[in-house]
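User: I've been going back and forth on whether these two constructs are worth ordering. Before I decide, could you fold them both?

Assistant: Sure. I'll take them in the order you sent them. The first construct and its structure tokens:
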Amino acid sequence: MEAEGILFPESPQANEEMVKKAEQFLRVYHMDDLVEITKTYPRKRRLVIDYTNLARYDYQMADEFLENPDFYRELFEYAAQRIEIPGAPKDMVIRIGLKNIPTVRRLLVRDLSSEYIGKVVLVEGIVREVTDVMPRIKVAVWACKACGSQVPVLQESPVLKKPLSCPYCGKRDFELLEEKSKYTDFQKIRIQEPLEFLKGGEQSRHIAIYLEDDLVNRTSPGERILVVGVLRIKKTQGRSTVQDKYIEALFVDPVQKEFEELEPTPEELRKIMELASDPDIYKKLVASIAPAIKGHEKVKEAIALQLFGGVQKKLPDGTRIRGNIHILLLGDPGTGKSQILEYAARLAPKSFYVAGKTVTGAGLTASAERDEFGEGGWVIKAGVLVLASGGLAAVDEFDKIDAKEREALHEAMEQQTVSVAKAGIVTRFKAETSILAAANPKFGRFSDDEPIVNQISVSPTILNRFDLMFVIREVKTAEEDREIASHILETHTAGQLRAQYEKSPQTEVTKEEVERAEEIVRPAIDPELLRKYVAYARTHVFPVLTPEAREALLNFYVELRERGRQKETVPINARQMEALIRLAEASARVRLSNVITREDAERAKELLLYSMQEVLRDPKTGEIDVDILYTGMPKSKVQKLKMVLNTLRSLTETRDKVAFDELLKEVSIYGIDEDELEEILQELSRRGDIIEPKKGFYSPV
């Protein structure tokens, strides 16, 4: 082998017949590629051999390449060195890659057993971590301390290898000559299995990929890639017989198309088309989401539209408008929010489910950290929103996530990107992810006496980025109690019958009885078909507003704004208008329609209005007020705060402080009673607008 001008005796160049055969192959199939490399060298130095061409030229050689890649890489590298190319640098060293290998070598990470060690494999995965680019010694030059001779040693493993002895004096004491050694660019990434390849409760496995030369800096966290490489064992200094494994990459190819593994078969496509043309398709979708949870039809309809999603737009000036829909479920404990989230995550073609305090800011977005994987250097780690880009992130116990960590969501939710700036590393990742989150009230259960958003531990700046918010309350009537209890009993009975039928040899339960009992929890659309239905719609359907739909949305917005002016509130703003459009687009995608009709617009209006009445209603006036999202309080309360503060300032023009009773007498003309005044004074004090110099007396700041 020749590496940077150093000759190694184990090189396959000794077999002249094979070298000529390899040289002839390169001349016939890859001469243009070799010429192109000379123009871009050393930025590009890898010649990627197409396996299909090699198999066409010599099937035995192609097959042996997969089994003994080290020998054949050296063979083709040496053959490439022998080909004279006009304008080629004298010291040019060609590296060999391989692509389009047989599908029988396409494996999941979990299938990379010991039988594949030293052989070529193909693995698909999502990039989780990426290290800095580091120099790696390719050929270490050692100086013998006894006679001064220089001995080059090819480094084929992660552990630095010394000569066994000096070939000139036989001594074994060496010193590394770092400045004379040969280096190559080196980078490590870690990939995990795509989630759609997993079944049931399987955990996603991961493996390290080693990249060299022109393969470095080709991938980012969150990207989905195909890796052709050689499975290696990571040699360690210890005596353990158990070794870790990694893949030395020969070729890395980004997977451009989302959900390509979910392309429906012709029969499935026929069923999808039938569903899309069914007049009851929206009802069937509702009946297909968490059927074990009774009711909540509006919530389930919204989640169905979230799965299909809106259309991402790119404007001429480069601005991007998100198409993903964000939904927040606010509910009393024990109302089934977590089950709804988990079920939605299973239906989404690409999804992650996370919960509560187990999530950090880096776990949601991305981070730069020093760790062992990066050999002590910096590693970029992708979080849930980056890994789920193009799909759904279900975030349970959203209110339990630390406030500082939630702040990292601002950019991801609106700009659909995640930025990292740390230790000189400044980068940005794609995070085109829909968020379905759930949160609990601060004090156990929701109260009707104050705005809902004040009863959860989530800042208004995060809340206003959700397109829809729903309140899932504990039922309050005996009739509803009976319906829910009956549904739970029937659900458990179905599970009991199934368990007895499958596991008890003495059972008298029949298959027909089990199927009849399961009817109550059987989704209207098979989950696997629904996943492919969603994937097909998101990749093939891009609807456009009709004039009728545009007029319906415009009139709704203008009329609500005018009503707000009359009531001195702001019931809707531009964010809600964009949410309307996204919901209407998703509604059209359900029907696989390329046009958004008035019916789609009406469905979007109904959902948004229902959501706003649930969350943005002023408990005092009953009016919808979007200011609640931005200030945490309705405009009516903001006005009363101003009234009390102005009155207090007026009364203290001639004195230092005012008694509570006197202030109450002055503001009672505005309809403010004693309890409300106490609440307002607490709020003004919290904001730093007033102080209480003496118990029961107040002064403006």
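The second construct, handled the same way:
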Amino acid sequence: MPAHHLPCSLSGAVWKPVVPPATETEKLTTQLGIHPLVAACLINRGLTTPEGAAAFLNPDLRQIPDPRSMRNLETALRILGAAVARREPIRIVGDYDCDGTTGLITLRNVLRQLGPQSDSLVSYYVPDREREGYGLNAGIIEQAAADGVRVLVSVDIGITAHREWALARARGLTGICLDHHTVLGSHVPGDAVVVCPKQVGDSYPEKDLAACGLAWQMARALMADRPNGDRFLRSLTKLVAIGTYADLVPLSSLANRAIVAEGLRGLNNGSTNYGLAALIDAAGLAQRTIAAGDLGFRLGPRINAAGRIEGTTLSVVELFDSRTPEEASARARQIDTWNTERQEVQRQLVARLEKNIAEQSGDDLVYVLAGRHADGWHQGVVGIAASKIVETYHRPALVCSIRDDIAHGSGRSIPQFNLIEALQTVGRDGLFLRYGGHPAAAGFCLPVDRLPELRRRLNAYARQVLSTTDLTRTYVYEGVLPIAELTPKLVENLAKLEPHGIGNPAPRFVIRGRISEQRILKESHLKLILSDGRHCIEVLWWQQSGYADRLSRDMTVEVLGRPDINVWNDRINTQFIATDIRPSV
């Protein structure tokens, strides 16, 4: 029986094989001298030429096109250069998430390099998530004007803030907006100098840079031809890699791949910044090799935790300004404490959301869920809670925290539902007070009495653009592997496809065998020993011990997942990390 016709998986997902023609695989294998599985994965990612595949496998900062061809970048550079020369105050306003924070720090670091005492000219601000909500606001503009600021730069916010930039111009401020939260081809505020490759009239080829990546591109242009400029730029990629990965921008982009790869090299070589070194230590990464996943699941969440629990990431900026290891360690410990608190608040909110969904009647394709901040719907964790709902139910989810009759929301989506396009479509008549984001994630706020209308409009829109198939979880796999082929050498070959992330997922494969042993680890994880009669492999299915009673010794199963390396007592073994399991026939 063909693999894709086998019985349903334990999770209820559909498994879809994606295997390119053997002739194409053989051709790329021969041309580049690579493993056939690596060649097949490259072809599945649209890389069919030797030149394109080689560039993908060897990410390098030199692959990133010259930023000066980006629309408005030269104008922004002239404004900043003139402000430094005239000793005019500059203020950088960054979003309270990881992308905005790392972008702010990146831009601040480079502006400090431009001239004598330029550090004293550059101030910064991060909005308070709970008090101010997402985005640029009039209060930020008025305060900057009152403080004598002449140039206001926004990082990761501002691209939909037409009224705020108009106010800034009226107050005598020159505005520069570095943001990526817009749909390709959208019109942007005319009262600010907008640097965003997705805007109308911008031919810059790398459209998927995060805001911190745009800040790094500006740094690259500002540091061109300066002594030690290349070394300085490479050092900045440590932070930019964290912000890039954490913001879920595509790692199929050569620019993003190059930034993350270079940042990982720098992080693994150690940091001379006391704050970054302390953050790495607090995340438990000081004594091990830092991988791409650690950027998104260990370092990024800690930076985000300050904004989620404390309300702003100002403390993170202060962490990177630490003058002694002791000062940095104390600040990193506080951030780690906030992260632990965030995890518990998140756990409680997700349980509440799942209860609400179970009690709902109707056939919503998009979940719009809301509750009062004082009742545990913490404004700082609604986005990450929405992510958990999407993972569980494979539905777009918007979760709102209500304070003072305003719903402050954050949404996450599935690949088939472009969330920012949806919000733009349903909110054209002024439904939202503010909103912004990208296809996978968005933030917004609106009066609480408009929530029912938001739910109605979004679901009407979803019924037009989503099919039943779109709402069925589908796992793609890139081949069926014999257990005998799961060797450390294979894992080493597949590692050439890293860094993995959005647009370049870690390749999954299917293996088949008989369960010879089954155990539950730490009351949460499922461990199997799978045998083909001659060879065995250890299978680990994280957080899925609940499926143990549907499996039994001597049952023949197929496991979808990825091979990995386990090092224990100096012994190197291959293991298989499961994504899903189904009975075999």
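Notes on the second construct follow. The longest strand covers residues 509-521. The chain has 18 helices and 17 strands.
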